[in-house]
Amino acid sequence: MLALRSSLTRAVAARTPAPQVCSSFATGPRQYDGTFYEFRTYYLKPSKMKEFLENVKKNIHLRTAHSELVGYWSVEFGGRMNKVFHIWKYDNFAHRTEVWKALAKDKEWQEQFLIPNLALIDKQESEITYLVPWCKLEKPPKEGVYELATFQMKPGGPALWGDPFKRAVHTHINQGYTKLVGVFHAEYGILNRVHVLWWNESADSRAAGRHRSHEDPRVVAAVRESVNFLESQQNMLLIPASFSPLK
Fold it and tell me: Are strands 83-90 and 36-44 parallel, antiparallel or unpaired?
């Protein structure tokens, strides 16, 4: 009888699913979507900016035939001069590997796009990012200028600073001071880094909205909460290229 009871107990245990374990050490919501965005920054040799952009405009179709270009900008203000910034979308890491294998075999892309442009580039940087779970990539209503604001947060991930940061971003949106394009969290590169891509009609409209937000107690309160988790921040004013999908 005891043996039978023991056997039944083991059988029930085998059919019972294991309880889901949620670690208190999780750094934020799990990333279920494999889609990621590669941020690429090229520092061009002085006096080569115009030549580089003209060649990219002429031959960008050779590159976009392989994967999706989200946006391509020249940096107007913020940081080093003669710099371009572009964002590429991939379904997952296997997709990116396939794209670059195909590019390695694409003689036309190498001869007309890669080789001529490499001679004009002084330095390259790459960063892999995900859209945060509470944000979708938005397309502005018309042409304008973009601001990429980069926030270096304290170690700990979104579990530590995610909610206050989200409230600060949404407060700016809800009051209409600017339009959000996307919020990206770094996966490869400098960790605990968040990029917020904003759109405005012009640099002057961006400045006016920023001045108004500084006088809004709702914005001030949300920002004061989020800066408790902030280590540093910087921004760039971006001018979209004529061939950029995001204008």
Answer: antiparallel
